[in-house]
Specification:
15 helices; Myeloperoxidase, subunit C; 33% helix; 10 strands; two-stranded antiparallel sheet
Length: 505
């Protein structure tokens, strides 16, 4: 087994016996037992908990045949959100930024829902760092197909493709771009998961164009001319501004600024290693899957040619498994290129124009469309909730209660988990479910609670502190240098403006 680092149970100077050799996946709490033995009875209980129509199903209206305007109404009609409430503290785009970050950190195509696996033996096909290798690939030399080889691109700008016909259905004739694709419409990019849905696909395009704009900035404003030097400096600026957004926007909004400030000032208590960082399964299998509860059943993807006219605006379900997989299906699945398949970011991030829409609260209810995921073979588990819960068995995950006790944090009162009593999971709750319920109980679903928030924040900050090239390692006092709406900061709205992907409405 390849060994890349160490982890500890916590504390600044733990005894030597608490260090364990680690692969790129591992455990924050290796001494904690699994929440349950993998038996048919337990598997059936988890499947019942995560089934369509079960405890975790938000029971959204789903009959788009009976109501052709359902995708729009799920956004505009408050009555349809009663059982799946909006989160006033987070806009819709933060969910997909979170998905993009996940794809930058981890990629495990080998583990199965059916067999127990040892996380230390699993190879992470993504470097456990926040360095955008899902975008840069292996660089211009080793991944030339990702880069524009024309005179204008010099092999150091990313290749993006104008969407035919999109300008005609875009406000002001704004030119829209897609990922480069081969003749079979497969996207050419560093991580195929970034084409899973239209929103993350277009976010990847925005990041590509952000890099291209920074290349121009490095040439015109910094005076560099050699392609290699231009690329290296542009890549550093892109990575550092992206990492700043992770710490000072994504994390602060997801776990709360006080927790971020505490970890930056006083250090990490639970996520530690000796040599190189790793991805804890408590994070990847449980805590960081909080974003699944934030996904809306539908989104306004763009405003069309006449933004003031609601009939011009494009509303679609995020997924609709009942649709045939045509060239332009009426949902937001990825892998397609068509004139209306582009994103107006004003819906997803707050540009101060009143157009931003919220995501869903962090709680134990998932949008109904996530219980019928498209693209699976007959007999496969299609419910996202069931898939997440079954991973707790295959990875021998500890219970939420035991993790809270190990972190010396308050354990949720039994009254807050009494809906799990019929399944015998109320005293040994799967960590993912526990963290979602904790956020709902402790923070009204607006951000993660103390257990989930600490795990997520420590891992993100730890990965950056373990990266020799990150801004937190090289220059912790650095502040962004690219143009922004407010001094000494840089947010997603600033990135999208600089990238030139925001149309005037």
């Amino acid at each position: 087994m390849t060994r890349h680092g160490h982890y500890t149970l916590g504390g600044e100077n733990p005894p030597k016996s608490t260090y364990y050799e680690q692969g790129k996946f591992g455990r924050m709490f290796p001494m904690l037992p699994p929440f349950a033995t993998d038996t048919p009875t337990v598997r059936d209980a988890l499947k019942e908990l995560g089934e369509k129509g079960g405890v975790m199903d938000a029971a959204d209206e789903a009959d788009i045949v009976a109501n052709p305007n359902l995708a729009r109404d799920l956004i505009t009609d408050p009555a349809l959100n009663a059982n799946n409430p909006n989160n006033p503290a987070l806009t819709a785009g933060m969910t997909f930024l979170g998905q993009f970050l996940d794809h930058d950190m981890t990629f495990d195509p080998t583990s199965s829902l059916e067999r127990q696996v040892d996380p230390e033996a699993i190879r992470n096909f993504r470097n456990p760092l926040l360095e955008l290798d899902n975008m840069y690939g292996s660089g211009p030399g080793a991944s030339p197909y990702l880069y524009d080889q024309s005179a204008g691109g010099q092999g150091i700008k990313f290749l993006v493709i104008e969407i035919p016909g999109a300008a005609a259905v875009s406000a002001g004739g704004f030119v829209r771009f897609d990922l480069p694709r081969n003749s079979q419409k497969t996207a050419l990019l560093g991580d195929p998961r970034n084409d899973e849905n239209l929103i993350v696909s277009q976010l990847h395009v925005a990041m590509l164009r952000f890099h291209n704009a920074v290349v121009d900035h490095v040439k015109s404003d910094l005076g560099l001319t050699h392609p290699g030097e231009v690329f290296a400096e542009a890549q550093r600026l892109v990575r550092w501004h992206y990492q700043w957004i992770i710490v000072h926007e994504f994390l602060e909004k997801t776990v709360g600024k006080p927790m971020v400030d505490d970890i930056l000032a006083d250090g990490r208590k639970f996520y530690k290693w000796r040599n190189l960082p790793f991805i804890p399964v408590e994070f990847s299998v449980a805590a960081y899957r909080f974003g699944h509860s934030q996904v809306r059943p539908s989104y306004r993807s763009n405003f069309g040619p006449t933004p003031a006219d609601i009939n011009s605006q494009v509303f679609k379900l995020i997924f609709n498994d009942s649709l045939p997989d045509g060239p332009d299906p009426n949902d937001l699945r990825g892998g397609k290129r068509a004139p209306t398949r582009f994103i107006d970011w004003q819906t997803f991030f707050d540009f101060g124009d009143g157009n931003a829409r919220p995501n869903k609260k962090i709680d134990t209810r998932l949008s109904t469309v996530l219980f019928d995921l498209p693209g699976f073979a007959p007999g496969d588990v299609q419910s996202l909730a069931q898939r997440n819960l079954l991973r707790h068995l295959t990875f021998s995950m500890p219970s939420g209660q035991s993790v809270a006790k190990a972190m010396k944090l308050p354990v949720l009162d039994a009254v807050h988990l009494n809906d799990l009593e019929p399944l015998n999971l109320h005293n040994r709750t799967p960590l993912w479910f526990y963290i979602l319920r904790e956020a709902d109980v402790e923070e009204d679903g607006k951000q993660l609670g103390p257990v989930g928030g600490r795990i997520v924040a420590e891992v993100f900050i730890g990965l950056l502190q373990g990266d020799a090239l990150s801004y937190l390692k090289q220059d912790p006092g650095w502040t962004p240098t690219l143009p922004s709406a407010a001094a000494d900061t840089f947010e997603m709205t600033d990135l999208l403006r600089f990238a030139g992907v925001v149309a005037s409405l």
